[in-house]
Amino acid sequence: MSEKPITVMIVEDDEIAARIYEQFTSKLEGFQIIATATTGKQALEMLHVVTPDVLLLDIYLPDMNGIDLLREVRKHFRGIDVVMITAANDVETVREAIRGGAYSYIIKPIMIDKFMSTLEQYANTRRQLQQHTTIDQTAVDKLFTKAAHTPATKTVETVATLPKGIDKLTLKLIRDKMQETTQSMNADDLAALAGMSHSTVRRYLEFLVSINEVTVETFYGTVGRPERKYRWVPQKAAK
């Protein structure tokens, strides 16, 4: 018998963002979107009808702050987990999300790899908790320190072995090309400049974003998928 899917409710007033979350969540095995709300009031009304396993919750909602909604969920729907997805990057909001028991906190503009890995990690945590009636301290430590397994902010020079799929010489070429311009560029622009495929360049750019050598902004157009533009961060340049 197959496992019961992890049910998801999206609470997001940006229609384009909500569609992106739905699209990529549906690509993950074992997840099922069951509802989408655009306001806090609408979300609370839905929660009296359907009970998702996890909420993907924005902070900036038209009628209330997402942290207040998180508190309401904790008060009345304690069995629901919450992943915050928001542009709010102030320390106090993050602190309140932690106090409110959020499982994770993703800052916009989101990286799709980060979004999907967070949901996969959440699914793995649920499986571990469902497979046992008791648990030892080592296993508990791993569950409560999941953030410690996320790659830390560092430059490539401090890493003995690069991640799988990242070649040292290709990485240097991408770095050099990014440093040649002060303008933001998308993966297609850089691919043409470097003479590489879009998929290869995108992989290296996302790696540089993950170690804070490159910043990324997402632009939502009226047609087609969102465009991600990358910019080199001079103070993080490799020596």
TrEMBL record:
UniProt keyword Secreted present: no
Residues modified to 4-aspartylphosphate: 58
Coiled-coil parts of chain: none
Organism: Brevibacillus fortis
Matches recorded under InterPro entries: 2C-system_Tx_regulators, CheY-like_superfamily, DpiA-like_HTH, Sig_transdc_resp-reg_cit/mal, Sig_transdc_resp-reg_receiver, WH_DNA-bd_sf
PANTHER family noted in UniProt: TRANSCRIPTIONAL REGULATORY PROTEIN DCUR-RELATED, TRANSCRIPTIONAL REGULATORY PROTEIN DPIA
Molecular function GO labels: DNA binding; DNA-binding transcription factor activity; phosphorelay response regulator activity
Domain Response regulatory: 7-123
Protein name: Transcriptional regulatory protein
